[in-house]
Amino acid sequence: MKTQVATIAAALLLGLSGNVRAGELPDWLTGEWQQERADRWSEEVWTLPRGGTMIGVGRTGRGESLRSWEVMRIIRAADGSLALHAAPDGGPATIFPAIEQGIRDISFANPDHDYPQRIRYWREGRLLMAETSKMDGTNIQNWTYAPAGK
Prior knowledge:
By secondary structure, this protein is mostly beta strands.
């Protein structure tokens, strides 16, 4: 009984839904996503989960100018944990372990990184939402992505 209570408490603390197993790759992230605000744009593309990995690429720009790009991976480790590996502009990857996971949301964090320290993705209907911030919730940046080409 103590083991069951501890397991349930741990799942609640991690924000895990009863329908989602820890370490389940977020297949709801798969697709080609875009946001346009006036002449500014942002895009992300995520592959289907396969081999314990999802691969993503992103880019942002203004008009016809590319401002930044990034290669990302969400990897399931042998222990079942997930981590986002983000490598902006061709630099070395920073690892953000998953800290919360629900049916259609996932959060990653690395408090030792300068910015961002927290990265969150979630779905609202057909839209993909993304947010970056410091661990204390300051310096928030938000994106609202729609499926590309629709």
